[in-house]
TrEMBL record:
PROSITE patterns associated with the record: HTH_LYSR
Organism lineage: Bacteria, Pseudomonadati, Pseudomonadota, Betaproteobacteria, Burkholderiales
Name this protein carries in UniProt: LysR family transcriptional regulator
Pfam short name (any one): HTH_1
The keyword Oxidoreductase is assigned to this record: no
UniProt GO molecular function: DNA binding; DNA-binding transcription factor activity
Keywords: DNA-binding, Transcription, Transcription regulation
Every HTH lysR-type domain range: 6-63
Amino acid sequence: MDFHGIDLNLLVAFDALMGERNVTRAANQVGVSQPAMSAALSRLRTLLGDPLFLRSADGLLPTQRARDLAEPVAQALRQIEAAMVEKPAFDAASATLTFNLGLPDYPSFVLLPTLLQALQTQAPGISLNVHAVNGRDDAVELLDAGAIDAAVGVPPSNADGRIKARPLLRDEFVTVLAHDHPAGQHGMDLDTYLSLQHVLVSPEGHLYGAVDHALAQQGRRRRLALTLPHMFAVPAVIAQTGMTATILKRVALHAQASHQLALFPPPLALPEIVFDLMWHRRSDTHPAQSWLREFIATQAAISCAENGTRASRR
């Protein structure tokens, strides 16, 4: 392929299309008209001999050729930008702006108190606007739309390279019972566990979770008595019923009803839960956005150290 005289703007257009999956939004990002972006896509298709993006109900879907090109092109553009454009440093202490964050209940519970306390002293002019994130892919949709600057949540089902991520929070599951429940007097084996009625937490309203997946691998099932979208209602329900639930440890330890609960290791192997800090690659090098991500990561480490899980208790 002869690259002599190639228009660098075509690579900028490709990068925007890869990030936005929408011609109009990509045009707005680059600062050109929609017809100009469509023309750039046509030239790219001719140059590379590949359709690159296919139309679908969910927007433009990249071909494998586009996916292969995405990261090398993005890295090249970042290197060119770093070499030619001197970006001003971001001064959080004097800045006055609002960041939009996508947070489910659990990260809100763990992070927000520490985040807000630190902002009041380190960056008093910065405020946060929190958007609800419930489904696994809600954060991706909000990041794609530019509605949020960053999100914290479980990894999405398919971010396809345009969503950057780094691990932020980790927690483990515990099984909880009312502290005086007779089923917990001698520990919690699998048969005892399955003899009880269970509460399942599913933000998406599913009737199947990590516990059910682990049980299915052993050819076993549990009895669901209640399905809830929010984990923080579970401790109070368990404390006043004969039911059991398997929830994240910090929720059980810091709930108002924690003194009424007995905590046990789950009687089957369950994975550790990891919550990622996520952002759109269009904001990867933006000074204010970079500061925000590092600030969140620092405060998350502090919060986890202060409110970390303690040893399981009966």
